[in-house]
Amino acid sequence: MLSLNNLQNVITNPVIPYVGTISEQLEPGTLIVIRGHVPGDSDRFQVDFQSGSSVKPRADVVFHFNPRFKRSNCIVCNTLKNEKWGREEITYDMPFTKEKSFEIVIMVLKDKFQVAVNGKHTLLYAHRISPEKIDTLGIYGAVNIHSVGFSFSSVSALPSFHRGGPSSVISGEMGDLRSSPAPTLELTEIRPENVQNAGMSQFPSNRGDTGKIVPRTVCTKSRDSTASLTLTCAKILPINSLSKTLPFVARLNSSMGPGRTVVIKGEVNAKAKSFNVDLISGKSKDIALHLNPRLNIKAFVRNSFLQESWGEEERNITCFPFSTGMYFEMIIYCDVKEFKVAVNGVHCLEYKHRFKELSNIDTLEIDGDIHLLEVRSW
Questions:
Q1: Boundaries of each Galectin domain copy (predicted)?
Q2: What CATH number is associated with residue 292?
Q3: To pair with 119 at 20 to 30 A between CA atoms, which of 97, 282, 340, 376?
Q4: Residue 158 lies in a domain
Q5: Of 100, 129, 151, which closes a domain?
Q6: Can you tell me the distance from the alpha carbon of 21 to that of 29, in angstroms, rounded to the nearest whole number?
Q7: What's this model's pTM, rounded to 2 decimal places?
Q8: Is the previous residue joined to 247 through a cis bond, with omega within 30 degrees of 0?
């Protein structure tokens, strides 16, 4: 669960129906976290993000989120504009259960809302009215609400999902990425340009021609330093310093080892089939960790490419965390015996080290059917 300590304007045990003013604008990156319990006799409840609180005429509802338990269990989403409802969007994969508690996390993105329930991605809803119009939250129906909290975004970049509590990403080792001391980012992007000057061995041929690479010149952000070939900045790699084109290849200026973390933010393409994230030993060409979500078959494949051959795939996972069109934040944490991976604040898997020389892992490669937004490492 997301820690209440990291949320703002927390409302506890509101009386339902609840109608309250939202203190800040819901910019892209804002999170709304609602925790509650569904009574055994509930037939429906709804969460409405409104433009005003007028009853007559009724205020516009920018985003209407309406779980229904009568007849077929489903979630109905819609927009009310000028007192007229639009076309319903219905989700039949129902994450709510009567007499059970829930946590709803709604994230505001540039072009849509993204909703997860109990740590599982649930649905996307494209904006029909700009979220800038939202100034009121309404909660109605047969539901008990324990708390409502906000994490407002003050920057254009999308924020990290918070971690804390019993379902912490990696059992509490990392804490809140945004409130922790700013670490030094240690990545140098490398791009296909000049094979004669590259001086680097080629990665496995079945993974594409990534051998033709040279370091990309990147200026540091420090006012007191001059331009450098090594990217060094506080905490966040600016989005505009990423090429955003795939494959994306970056060298870890400090090698992998226990305690090292890599964070990748992106958006899955609308017609995505798969993508991959690889941690590589540039010297030996070995792929220590190959993460390969396959959306067409909903499999999260893990493997290693050692001594010019692939090992046995690992596919077991409780819940496939990706969906087409969704925003994601993937966190890869290197522990002593294994890698730990979380997606959108929820722990997904462990992968025991098959490649034992962790200090030789010095390269990150990302490719596939995603739009890359941000990469960080420390």
A1: 18-151, 248-378
A2: 2.60.120.200
A3: 376
A4: no
A5: 151
A6: 19
A7: 0.75
A8: yes
Range of the domain at 261: 248-377
The parts of the chain modelled with pLDDT lower than 50 are 154-185, 193-243
Please say whether the dihedral angle defined by the alpha carbons of residues 310, 313, 319 and 320, taken in this order, is positive or negative.
positive
CA dihedral over 361, 364, 367, 373, signed as positive or negative: positive
Question: Token pair of 293, please?
Answer: 């979500």
Residue 198 belongs to what H/E stretch? helix 195-198
Strands (E), 69-224: 74-81, 84-85, 89-91, 101-108, 112-117, 120-126, 136-141, 144-151, 187-192, 213-215
CB 291 within 8 Å of CB 278 = yes
What is the model's pLDDT at position 192?
Answer: 54
Tally the residues of the chain.
378
172 part of a folded domain: no
- Amino acid type, 293: P
Calpha distance 67→23 (Å, rounded):
26
CA distance 58 to 174: 45
The CA distance from 61 to 43, in Å, is: 21
- Count Cβ atoms below 10 Å from residue 238 Cβ, excluding itself: 13
User: Whole-angstrom Cα distance, residue 291 to residue 276?
Assistant: 5
> Is-contact 308 204, C-beta < 8 A?
yes
Q: Tell me: the pLDDT tens digits for 209-263?
A: 333 322 332 322 333 333 322 222 222 333 344 446 899 999 987 889 999 999 9
Which amino acid belongs to residue 268? Answer: V
Q: Is residue 72 part of a domain?
A: yes
Using a 10 angstrom Cβ sphere, with 0-12 exposed, 13-18 middle and 19 or more buried, the burial of residue 36 is buried
* Number of folded domains that form the chain: 2
Among candidate residues 333, 157, 211, the one with its CA nearest the CA of residue 262: 333
Q: Please state, in angstroms and rounded to a whole number, the distance separating the CA atoms of residues 270 and 267.
A: 9
